[in-house]
Amino acid sequence: MESKLRAAIQLWQFEEIQCEKIQRELQSIHQRYDALTTQLEQLSVLRQTTVQHINKGERLCRALLLNANQTSVMLQTTFSHFEQERSILQAEIRAIQDRLYYKKTRVKGLENLVHQWRDLQKTTKIKQEQRVVEDIINARVRFNA
Q1: pLDDT digits (tens, 9 = 90+) for 31-56
Q2: Is the dihedral of CA 24, 29, 27, 36 positive or negative?
Q3: pTM (2 decimals)?
Q4: Taking Cα atoms as reference points, which of 32, 13, 21, 12 lies closest to residue 96?
Q5: Which of 3, 12, 21, 79 can pair with 110 through a Cys bridge, CB separation 3.0 to 4.6 Å?
Q6: What are the Cα distances from residue 140, in Å, to 95, 130, 135?
Q7: pLDDT tens, 94-122?
Q8: What is the rounded distance in angstroms from the CA atom of residue 63 to the CA atom of residue 89?
Q9: Helix axes 2-56, 62-144, angle to 10 degrees
């Protein structure tokens, strides 16, 4: 029983370490996601200001229109790329959250198992001590009788 308990404790500790690693990974991805969201917001503002500056111009020449068009295309491409990357990060976050939930459930189950086995070990030890005391009392009663 003692070896089973030690093995369960080691597994429990290992699973807790794995759970902490997953939490750090999730935190890292959340930071990347937040940074990407900020970049998307900034890119959106840049795109709006670019369009506003083009619309304000009274005299538009051919070169200015070509540059504005190229800028608009590049901004749209970058914006689309960032949105796709953000969607990928959202999927990763969901997958890691599911994995973290599984690990936490496993850790909790192992913790309960260790506590049950410790309680069982304590009750077994107490019963053995009671039997020893009863045997001593019975031996004295037989000896005196």
Answers
A1: 999 999 999 999 888 888 877 777 77
A2: positive
A3: 0.69
A4: 21
A5: 12
A6: 68, 15, 9
A7: 999 999 999 999 999 999 999 999 999 99
A8: 39
A9: 160
